[in-house]
Design a protein that fits this description.
mainly alpha; 9 helices; single chain; globular
């Protein structure tokens, strides 16, 4: 296959991953789910094409969603960058034998730290996400606002990344392109 065909296929697939982020993120927002589903395409692109592709898909989806549907997405663009980069480093052409839950945690942690900082410093702990309801619930029971945000963020981010990775690897398995270590789990 020529390099031009490969680049065209890669760009086309990245565009589809971008649309997947936007559609699934808006669906989660509309349904007020406590998970986000806005990084499925980022994880898919990072797994197939590496960290740069994951970063590009994540950044573009945050920008497009931010100007079309959810202004908060613009502020969380750095989280997409973290997720795309870390996922690409962990998943692209890697045969690391770590379990899927552990990989999900490693992808989650940097993004959670960045997202928690953004949520507290810019929004006082409340955003458009369905998880803000849980933050308010904890805060109402006397848990410190910063701790409430971090606890909810780590739990919802981890659940989101685990579900998203399961969806990505299931899709790749159906396409017969799953990473070798996923086929064993």
């Amino acid at each position: 296959m020529t390099k031009m065909k490969l680049q065209t296929r890669q760009l086309t697939f990245m565009a589809m991953a971008l649309v997947l982020n936007i559609v699934m993120g808006n669906l989660a927002l509309l349904l007020r789910l406590p998970i986000y589903l806005d990084t499925i395409g980022t994880l898919l692109a990072a797994t197939l094409f590496g960290p740069v592709a994951g970063i590009i898909v994540g950044l573009l989806s945050a920008l497009i969603t931010g100007v079309t549907a959810d202004l908060f997405s613009l502020y969380y663009a750095p989280v997409q960058l973290c997720i795309g980069g870390v996922a690409g480093l962990l998943l692209y052409q890697k045969k690391i034998g770590w379990s899927l839950p552990f990989k999900a945690f490693l992808i989650t942690l940097p993004g959670t730290i960045v997202a928690s900082f953004i949520t507290i410093s810019l929004f006082g702990g409340i955003t458009s996400s369905g998880s803000s309801i849980i933050v308010q619930f904890l805060y109402g029971f006397g848990v410190n606002q910063t701790l409430s945000v971090f606890l909810v963020q780590i739990i919802t981010d981890y659940a989101d990344k685990l579900v998203s990775l399961l969806l990505v690897f299931t899709l790749l398995k159906l396409l017969n392109k799953a990473p070798a270590d996923y086929k064993r789990t």
